[in-house]
Write a structure and sequence with these properties.
Strand content: 5-15%
Distance between the termini: 93 Å
Shape: elongated
CATH superfamily of the largest domain: Nitrogenase molybdenum iron protein domain
CATH class of the largest domain: Alpha Beta
CATH topology of the largest domain: Rossmann fold
Number of domains: 2
Order of helices and strands: HEHEHEEEHEHHEHEHEHEHH
Largest sheet: 4 strands, parallel
């Protein structure tokens, strides 16, 4: 009788352990998150705020790397192939996607937003992006469109999280609208109407908020300006009373510094947001944070009231 009780107890413990391990295995299987890969920082910011911890987000472009000259490694390519969804910027920004066979559903956000066509002069100076300006995420209306497209695809991927995604989308669009209102209010009345930049990522902002942009290298950050272009920029600075010359992270600033010294104006970083630095990423900087910094710098450079 005693042995029977011992055997029964052992069998009961074994059954409990079996159920425990089966349950854990099921939970582990259920908890595996789908992978969503993104290219530019702006798209990363949208997915981060809409999906939050519902998915594993792979930022294809490493923080601190220039998006214009980036080429993914075989390891990154393998990670892209594991993804359930891939969102890429399009508009010619990622030439490496041409000919790449995506195993996941790949969405070219550039096909949904309103792209700015380049002037003949701009197009001549830029070899990668053909006839459009790829920096469309600096237009808040385009960011709203991108957020809606991304949310729609996230819902298709995880339909049970639809209400969660839609609530996050509402909050994200409200943030974008608030930023848009702040830009309109602060850039609505300015003494100056021109900024000088190393490469022109400000086309969408300048068009919407009615200021002019003079750039050293057009849309090509990797291009080296000629002596004629440097002289032209210096003449513009003096003629129009420009107070600040902007450059971007990941761009050689030697020429910019020389121009600033020769014309006695200040230099500052404009966040183009194709990517951000490692330090900014570690600090948890968001699209909202950096666009607000851009607004303060622009309003100061244009002497806005």
């Amino acid at each position: 009788m005693k042995n029977l009780k011992v055997i029964s107890l052992i069998l009961l413990i074994a059954a409990i352990l079996l159920l425990f391990f089966m349950s854990n295995k099921k939970d582990e299987s259920n908890s595996k998150k789908p992978i969503v890969a993104v290219t530019t920082f702006a798209l990363y910011d949208i997915v981060t705020h809409i999906a939050k911890d519902s998915v594993e987000i792979v930022h294809i472009l490493p923080f601190g790397v220039d998006p214009h000259s980036f080429e993914p490694t075989p390891k990154l390519m393998a990670k892209i192939e594991e993804s359930a969804l891939v969102f890429y910027s399009g508009a010619g920004l990622e030439p490496w996607v041409d000919g790449f066979d995506f195993h996941a559903k790949a969405i070219n956000i550039g096909e949904y937003v309103h792209l700015r066509k380049l002037s003949h002069n701009e197009a001549q100076h830029h070899k990668h992006h053909h006839s459009v300006d790829p920096h469309y995420w600096l237009d808040f209306e385009n960011m709203k469109i991108a957020a809606k497209v991304i949310t729609k695809n996230l819902i298709a991927l995880l339909p049970k999280r639809e209400a969660f995604f839609k609530e996050n989308l509402t909050n994200y669009i409200a943030m974008l609208q608030k930023l848009e209102n702040e830009y309109a209010a602060l850039l609505g009345s300015c003494k100056l109407h021109k900024v000088v930049v190393s490469h022109n990522a400000l086309g969408y902002l300048s068009r919407r908020y009615h200021f002019d942009v003079e750039s050293l290298t057009g849309l090509s950050p990797e291009a080296q300006p000629s002596a004629k272009e440097v002289t032209s920029i210096m003449n513009t600075i003096k003629k129009d009373g420009v107070r600040t010359i902007f450059f971007e992270h990941f761009v050689n600033d030697n020429v910019i510094k020389r121009i600033a010294a020769d014309t006695n104006i200040s230099i500052d970083v404009f966040e183009a947001l194709g990517n951000i630095t490692k330090d900014e990423a570690e600090a948890g900087m968001s699209y909202e944070d950096l666009m607000r910094k851009n607004l303060q710098k622009l309003s100061k450079a244009l002497m806005c009231q």
